[in-house]
Design a protein that fits this description.
The chain contains 13 helices and 9 strands. By secondary structure, it is an alpha/beta fold. The strands form 2 sheets. The protein has a 6-stranded mixed beta sheet, sandwiched between helices. A 3-stranded mixed beta sheet has the order 5-7-8. A hairpin with a 2-residue loop joins strand 1 and strand 2. The structure holds ligand A1D88. The site of ligand A1D88 has 23 residues, from strand 5 and helix 13. It comes from Vineibacter terrae.
């Protein structure tokens, strides 16, 4: 099996899947997300894989969903969005919500290895992993409110940061640092950038000495606790709130054809605009 946007590397019972589009900061194109979904299913099927690391090549983990790289624009011509709201609903649900829910429930431990920017779709991917190891230069953000949206499609931040901090970061769209992420419980630990890869692999190998079935059941108990607390229903409901902002985003010009005609950099400008002295 070959991938155009991923690296697949084995270290004994540990598998590392790396998003490999460093020239666009690992922006998540439709192709990348589809390949990642297939790679994770393969990781489930390969019985000798016990732990999966998800990484990003280059300086940054991921700058989020692909907002119009040349490859993405070409791909959209081959896979046009089905017309109307129903088409959008199907595409967004399949590509962003259903994938993340599947990745959250992969029956093997998953570890996100995060350096540099981890923005919106990048944060979705990291947050559906079981553990997150962050380099000290990691920066996280959900900037959706800045373009008239509510948040990302798979919205687990109230669970990951706690409700107050989740609201603060949504309302401002500001970046939070690795140290802040650790204090809020989003990441398991922060390590020096130069040690990120080695320390993540070392942790994965320590987990992989355990029995695969025991790991699977341990993960299931934690995820089912979250489900019993209502997490899954809240995630599905938050996706509907996300969808409710699509019509107003079309009015703002940040979604739909008007947005697609803009260059990625014009689209980032809305999200990166300075709001005040505290902004980063
Ligand atoms: C519900 C929504 C979910 C989402 O995930 S929407 C996406 C949200 N993501 C963002 O808004 C981040 C967009 N990117 C940026 O704002 C900037 O990047 C950064 C601040 C992260 C970094 O800035 P700098 O260091 O100056 O790098 P650079 O020159 O902007 O990026 C290098 C190349 O990467 C491409 N790129 C970066 N992010 C994306 C993206 N998300 N989609 C498509 N391309 C992207 C650029 O265009 C450029 O490429 P070229 O050199 O050819 O101009």
């Amino acid at each position: 099996m070959t991938y155009t946007t991923l690296l697949w590397e084995r270290f004994g019972a540990v598998l590392r899947i790396t998003a490999n589009r460093p020239e666009v900061l690992n922006a998540q194109s439709r192709v990348l997300l589809t390949e990642l979904d297939a790679a994770l299913q393969r990781a489930v099927d390969e019985t000798d894989v016990k732990v999966v690391i998800i990484a990003g090549a280059g300086k940054h983990f991921s700058a989020g969903h692909d907002l119009g790289s040349p490859q993405e624009m070409e791909d959209q011509k081959r896979h046009p969005v089905a017309p109307g709201f129903e088409g959008e609903y199907r595409r967004l649900s399949a590509l962003y919500l259903e994938t993340c829910l599947r990745w959250r429930d992969v029956p093997k431990p998953t570890i996100a290895q995060v350096q540099g920017y981890c923005i919106m779709g990048g944060l979705m991917l990291a947050s559906c992993c079981d553990l997150i190891i962050a380099a000290d230069d990691a920066l996280f953000a959900d900037r959706a409110v800045r373009w008239g949206g509510a948040h990302v499609q798979y919205f687990s931040m109230p669970w990951d940061l706690g409700p107050r901090k989740a609201k603060e970061y949504l309302f401002t769209g500001e970046f939070f640092t690795a140290a802040q992420a650790e204090a809020m419980g989003l990441v398991n630990r922060v390590v020096p950038r130069a040690a990120l890869e080695a320390q993540t692999l070392e942790l994965a190998q320590r987990i992989a000495v355990n029995d695969a079935y025991a790991l699977r059941m341990a993960k299931r108990s934690v995820n089912e606790t979250l489900d019993a607390q209502g997490q899954r229903a809240a995630l599905e409901n938050a996706f509907k709130n996300y969808m409710l902002t699509i019509p107003t985003r079309i009015e703002h010009g940040t979604y739909g054809n008007a947005a697609r005609e803009r260059s990625p950099k014009e689209r980032f400008a809305v999200l990166n605009r300075k709001l005040g002295a505290a902004d980063t």
